[in-house]
Amino acid sequence: MRQSAVTPEEIGKYFAAHQSEFEEVRIHQVVIRKKPEGAKEGIPGLTAEEAKTRAEEIRKALSSGDDPKKVAGQFQVANVVRVDAEPNAVRRGTMRADMEKAAYELKDGQVSEVFDLPQSLVFFKVASHKVGELKDVSSQIENTLRQQKVNSALDELKKNAKVWLDDGYFPAPSQPGAQGAAKPSLLPGGPTTPK
């Protein structure tokens, strides 16, 4: 553990080299629940066509610069359509890969394409991008670097460990019926063959 101590300089270097890992994007997410085909009456959701139409209406409003709070008030339907009035912070590795790629590539104020998931349509408006500050992520970096040092030390120990086996200490068992091999006794001190 002493060998795995991490210095502030190492933390700073890691942060400088991996800043994109600590980037955060804030998004207003829109989720429109789809009703399964042939669903019974009363099941919440919109048909695939209704969901697509509603998504385009909301997307158009957000793209034109309407305030997300206003859009939420206008389009939100309990248990069917959700529009985040306030942005939510999303870190790398917490979304589906295609959605995350879009979120980090879009500029502030831009709206993503609509993602057609099995049970819903999802898209979002990017509110802002922010790179985490060193003070906020230093403990996370310290844990990562410490684990790397421990793993490296263990690998070095395995590589340098000189393990040898004395074959004479562990002789191979003799095969029954082999020439010169003694027949096992059935009873202690008893005859070697049954009568």
List strands and helices in order, with pairings.
Layout: H1 8-17, E1 23-33, H2 48-63, H3 68-75, E2 81-83, E3 88-91, H4 97-105, E4 115-116, E5 120-131, H5 134-160
Antiparallel strand pairs: 1-2, 1-3, 1-5, 4-5
Pick out the low-confidence regions. Answer: none
Helix segment tally: 5
Distance between the termini: 66 Å
Estimated structural class: alpha+beta
- CATH fold call of the domain at 22-132: Chitinase A, domain 3
Helix content: 25-40%
Shape category: elongated
Supply the CATH class of the domain at 22-132: Alpha Beta
Largest sheet: 5 strands, antiparallel
Second CATH tier, the architecture of the domain at 22-132: Roll
Explain how this protein is built.
There is one protein chain. This protein is an alpha+beta fold. The protein has a domain at 22-132: Chitinase A, domain 3 (Roll). Helices cover 36% and strands 16% of the residues. The protein contains five helices and five strands. The protein has helices at residues 8-17, 48-63, 68-75, 97-105, 134-160; strands at 23-33, 81-83, 88-91, 115-116, 120-131. Strands 1, 2, 3, 4 and 5 form a five-stranded antiparallel β-sheet that branches. The longest helix is centred in the C-terminal third of the chain and has 27 residues, at 134-160. The protein is elongated. The N and C termini lie far apart (66 Å). The relative contact order is 0.17.
